[in-house]
Amino acid sequence: MQPYGNPKVKIKHKKLPGRVVVIADRCKGCDYCIDYCPRDVLVRSEGFNTKGYHPPKVANEDACTFCGLCERICPDFAIYLEHENTQRITIQEPRRKQNIEFFPSPLRGEFFMQGDIACAEGALAAGCRFFGAYPITPASEIAEHMSVVLPRLKGVFIQFEDEIASIAGILGASWAGRKSMTATSGPGISLMNENIGLGMMMEVPAVIVNVQRGSPSTGLPTSWGQSDMMQARWGSHGDYGSIALCPKSCQEMFDLTVMAFNYSEKYRLPVFIMSDGIVGHMTEKVVIPPVEKLKLVERKYTRKTADKYKPYEAGPDLVPEFAKAGDGYRYHTTGLTHDERGYPDMSEEAHQKLVNRLVNKIKAHADDIIILEEKDTEKADVIVISYGITSRLSAPAIAIAKKKGIKVGSLRLVTVWPFPEKRIRELSKRVSGFVVPEMNLGQIVLEVERCSGKNCTVAGIGHAGGGIIRTEDIVKAITEAAHGKKK
Amino acid sequence: MARKNKIVNPESHPMGDILRMDRMPHIWCSGCGLGTAMTAFVEGLKLAGADYNSTVVVSGIGCTARIAGYIKLDSYHTTHGRAIPFATGIKLANQDLKVVVFSGDGDLFAIGGNHLIHAARRNVDLTVICVNNFIYGMTGGQNAPTTPISAYSSTAPYGNCEEPFNLVGIAASAGASYVARWTALHTRRLSESVSTAFKRKGFSFIEVVSPCPTVYARKNRGGTGLDLLKEFAGRSVIDHTADPTKIPLDMDGKIVCGEFVNIEKPTFWDTVQAGLKKRFPNIYLEKKHMEE
């Protein structure tokens, strides 16, 4: 046996009785094995594992004496020696197919993740490969995360000179066939509204994330609010159908971003994600399913020949077929009122037809689009209608009111636009009152009032943002609404 | 009378394959230089051997921007001033496309000025053709950022008192890698310039000085379109060595034309890829860089 560590003795290369196995995804990058290996067999790899650590790799196998210190010292059971003649129990590890040299994204698994980053990961999982934005609190983290990951996924990240360019850029990229997204806050949306209208008129799929802050104007940059809800519906000039989704948690930042891409591809329009500073900057558990298990909707590309294709000829579903730039269709499209060929047409008939279709394509599919979360609404006297983070704020108030013996239900709007008129009208005939807490001074409450008419009372609890609605205010409103019935 | 009744087959025009003849006659006034600029552009594309299926034209708003509607390519008529970021999106999303922005001076330098200088700074691979008619034509002759000092316009009834932009100077200073200026009269040179710009990589900027007989000439007693072209012929000088920042345009001075800048430098996309390659030496970069 050769004396260990004696430099005078030349160690002859012997065929090892096995090999050193690194379970890369288990590694947490402590570097114990690398540091303590007496022969410097292991080095830190440049690539990342699924957790984002640099696992060790065998660099100098010839020097290995098969001493097994690495296996002993590894705190994470991520490295072991595999003897040729020993039969080990093989445990099925979820292994990725991608090259470890690159960031293993879209991620999968369970994470403790910020809402903004969950939103970016949702976009990546949905197939977003173009992101253009301008930094703005509290949405900047989305851009930062995209700037790291997107180029490694063969995507394009660009920080534009302003929000106006960002939205124009993502519309262009979408026409070239990429799923595109931008992320901003209220002030940015105000700048974007012009080209949001263009996106609606040209019918371009895209996703716009609004991480709302305290408004109006620059308002509370590092704080939160929900005061852009009407802007998502009526922001750009003119009539058009709009879709807006309101996530309440980091998990939903992921899930609803995927859903927003599906809606935008299916109905060909820019879709809003109306998050807010709380959800965006909150860090929670997020479970990311494997990409192949996500239900993704792709846009309807035309199969017609170039001479028969009309870019704005819509079938019974009112959504025209798509042809991307460079496909040889050589069509024209414009923000002017246009006919089916995409040519400008200044007639009243053309305008009526087009604008009606833009509104009706969302109205007609409202039942498919609208998602509601209802709890105890069937036997309720009072229903709390909330969306986004306010639904989590109202949960303790509902519990307190229930203890007081009031029959309270809750209705959460996952999709705020299109507004669930039908369901609210139905419920208004059965209940004595609706309570609508929201972090603005009365926006969605107006819609609830409109839909419920004189059927029941509607109490809005307004809060300008920057803080949270107090539980006792909600309890008080619920109690008042319940007593209203007894009179 | 016989001629009037004759049905003209729009496809029989030599440019019928690239112009939307079903939309002719176009909306531009008699004597306007835009039609000529457009012909020069189409000839330039032919000269460059462009693949029409992968050439995209993007425009903003204004008289010039209507060119997108008459050209039979993938053409996008976007919002006022936003043609360049829209085109940047298209180009970056699909590197195989050749993207041309065709718009006016008001669109590209007033409302869209910020986008232009930033695209030039980034050196995005775009060909930008800016038709400069010194005025806002479509809205009825209001002051433009190019209206010469003391010239009259609808919103400068006592003469314009603002110093105009020197378009080639701005483009060159902002970092454009190709800068040229021609008048609508220099059709052949303009075509060659379009062809050069189209074939090269990087941000190319071509200014086309064009007559506007209906508003600019009428307010400034310039006569008809033909008179203006004759005036251009007298005033223009070709000097490729001129410093683009020192050749502003005014009411009656020289119009210095030529190819002022033609330099090679890495485009935005080249720089992005070089950065990635440096950080991840083994990264697999496709030529198309598109998703599988």
Task: Summarize it.
The complex is a heterodimer of chains A (487) and B (292). By secondary structure, chain A is an alpha/beta fold. Helices cover 33% and strands 19% of the residues of chain A.
Helicity range of the residues of chain A? 25-40%
CATH topology of chain B: Rossmann fold
- What is the CATH-assigned architecture of chain B? 3-Layer(aba) Sandwich
Order of helices and strands of chain B: HHEHEHEHHEHEHEHHEEH
Order of strands across the widest beta sheet of chain A? 7-6-8-9-11-10-17
The residue fraction in helices of chain B comes out at 25-40%
Percent of residues in beta strands of chain A? 15-25%
Domain module tally of chain B = 1
Proportion of beta-strand residues of chain B: 15-25%
Average of the residue pLDDT scores of chain A: 89
Q: Which chains have the largest interface?
A: A-B, 50 and 45 residues
What ranges of chain A have pLDDT less than 50 throughout 5 or more consecutive residues? 1-11, 88-104
Distance between the termini of chain A: 98 Å
Please describe what this structure looks like:
The complex is a heterodimer of chains A (487) and B (292). Chain A folds into three domains: 18-83, Alpha-Beta Plaits; 109-293, Rossmann fold (3-Layer(aba) Sandwich); 372-486, Rossmann fold (3-Layer(aba) Sandwich), CATH 3.40.50. Chain A contains 15 helices and 19 strands. Chain A has helices at 32-36, 69-73, 115-126, 140-149, 163-175, 186-202, 229-234, 250-267, 277-281, 348-363, 366-369, 389-403, 421-428, 444-452, 471-486; strands spanning 18-22, 42-44, 56-58, 79-83, 109-114, 128-133, 156-159, 179-184, 206-212, 244-245, 270-276, 283-288, 332-334, 372-375, 382-386, 408-413, 415-417, 433-438, 457-462. Chain B is of the alpha/beta class. Chain B has a single domain (19-266), classed as Rossmann fold, CATH 3.40.50.970. In chain B, 35% of the residues lie in helices and 15% in strands. Chain B has eleven helices and eight strands. Chain B has helices at 2-5, 34-48, 67-70, 83-93, 105-111, 113-122, 167-174, 187-199, 213-219, 225-235, 268-279; strands spanning 55-59, 74-77, 98-104, 127-132, 178-183, 204-209, 236-238, 255-262. An eight-stranded mixed sheet of chain B has the order 2-1-3-4-6-5-8-7, with helices on both faces. Residues 1-7 and 287-292 of chain B have low confidence and may be disordered. At the A-B interface, strand 6, helix 5, helix 6 and strand 13 of A face strand 2, helix 4, helix 6 and helix 11 of B. Strand 13 (332-334) of chain A pairs parallel with strand 2 of chain B, so a sheet runs across the interface.
